[in-house]
Write a structure and sequence with these properties.
Blueprint lengths: L20 H18 L2 E2 H8 L3 H13 L3 E3 L15 E4 L8 E7 L3 E7 L5 E8 L5 H17 L7 E8 L2 E3 L4 E5 L4 E4 L1 H9 L3 E5 H12 L7 E7 L3 E7 L2 E2 L30 H5 L1 H10 L8 H9 L3 H25 L3 E6 H5 L1 H14 L9 E2 L7 H16 L16
Parallel strand pairs: 4-7, 7-11, 12-15, 15-16
Antiparallel strand pairs: 1-3, 2-3, 4-5, 5-6, 8-9, 9-10, 12-13, 13-14
Length: 416
């Protein structure tokens, strides 16, 4: 069965019962997060940075090393050094024995598979195209292709499990896709289905929340204070993070911004209104417009980006128009929520900084509270955002509670 998490708080610093096992769990999480932030780092420095006693740090390091999550990195003593050498500890990311998390992003035309280490760095990735596949066959085909991908992972790297994400309304506690219109998924227990297909623990979340959590765990320090993440693909949605916690809301329904009004947009929407964000700026709308205008032969956003890069002014103009629409929507989010960061996942701006500049300019022009364009950024992982964020769906609970989220690193779990 998939491992699911019904706790709405995704912060690694979520308070736990500070007696007995609760204190041990909290201490282990504190040590692991301190090493993530500062490693390689000596145990004495872990104690100073975390506020734990040296004895507690030593116990937790021993336990986390035994579980395969940390490793000692002996440093040779400096010439003439006196006393016991300081042995730093770091996350176990070694090519032999370093555990990996699998990441799966299920998109509309294709899915992205990835393997990431404990620092969220990509070890391997692959794209699996499934455009036009019926909903009842999609999960089976994606599961089979992912299993094949995982079977080819680097030898000697144990697998922790799978983090899966997709757009739409996702209930992570139950591992259920409540609604994904483009893929025709309704009330689908996706985590359980993937877990059975892969014989692995699977955690599931919405992709906008997953990217936000990836920024909090691995990205810029400001993301831990507050951020808004806006995901602009075939699905357009958003996520809010405050003090290291990504907000889900009742039934995990937060983040639906598809019908957020875009100032000056007159694009018709299926809801009957005009100017809705998804109807204005989604990949599918953008690509269809480019085909209709004869800019590209097939409705693929990457073809449009390539055409712009090759010097087609029509392609460039269309991408800049979309970027300004995204910026106007970001301005609304800035004015309502005023976060430290607005993270924008949008394909053209991930690949070419000029389009991020367009987004920033439109946001600052339309916002009443933000005059700093640097508050709008692309994801820290750049073009690797999808596999890294998907892997974070699995890794974030591990950093929150390394003694309970996954137990010992599994050296021979499925697909091996």
């Amino acid at each position: 069965m998939p491992r699911t998490d019904t706790d709405a708080d995704e912060s690694p610093h979520h308070p736990t019962r500070m007696t007995g096992d609760g204190r041990r769990d909290a201490n282990a999480a504190s040590v692991l997060r301190t090493v993530l932030d500062h490693g390689p780092v000596a145990r004495g420095d872990v104690a100073r940075l975390s506020g734990l006693s040296p004895a507690a740090v030593s116990r937790q390091c021993t336990d986390l090393i035994r579980r395969g999550l940390l490793r000692d990195l002996p440093e040779p003593a400096a010439p003439g050094a006196v006393g016991r050498p300081r042995i730093p500890v770091d996350l176990h990311t070694g090519e032999v024995g370093g555990p990996l998390a699998a990441g799966l992003h299920i998109g509309v035309p294709a899915s992205t598979f990835g393997l990431v280490d404990l620092r969220g760095r990509i070890v391997a990735r692959r794209t699996f195209w499934h455009e036009g596949t019926r909903a009842d066959a999609l999960v089976r085909q994606v599961g089979a292709a992912l299993r094949e991908f995982l079977a080819e992972r680097p030898a000697g790297r144990p697998l922790l499990g799978v983090g899966a994400m997709l757009g739409g309304w996702v209930e992570p506690g139950e591992g259920v896709v409540v609604r994904h219109d483009a893929l025709a998924l309704r009330h689908r227990p996706l985590a359980a289905q993937l877990s059975r297909a892969l014989d692995l623990p699977v955690r599931l979340d919405n992709h906008a929340r997953a990217v936000a959590q990836s920024e909090i765990l691995f990205g810029r320090p400001a993301a831990r204070r507050s951020l808004v993440h806006l995901f602009v693909g075939n699905v357009v949605d958003a996520a809010l993070g405050i003090a290291g916690v990504v907000h889900r809301g009742p039934r995990a329904g937060a983040g639906d911004v598809a019908h957020l009004p875009v100032p000056d947009s007159t694009a018709p929407c299926a809801c009957g209104r005009t100017g809705c964000l998804e109807a204005t700026a989604s990949d599918s709308v953008l690509a269809a417009t480019a085909v209709r205008r004869g800019i590209i032969p097939e409705p693929q956003t990457m073809l449009l980006i390539d055409a712009a890069a090759a010097g087609d002014p029509r392609a460039d103009r269309l991408l800049r128009d979309r970027a300004r629409a995204v910026g106007r929507a970001a301005a609304l989010l800035l004015d309502v929520l005023n976060p430290d960061l607005v993270v924008i996942t949008e394909q053209s701006s991930l690949l070419h900084a000029d389009y991020l500049t367009e987004i920033r300019g439109a946001a600052v022009d339309h916002s009443h509270v933000c005059d700093d364009p640097e508050r709008l950024v692309s994801p820290h992982a750049g073009p690797g955002v999808l596999p890294v964020a998907a892997g974070t769906v699995l890794l974030n609970p591990l950093f929150r509670n390394p003694l309970r989220a996954g137990g010992r690193v599994q050296g021979h779990v499925g697909c091996g």
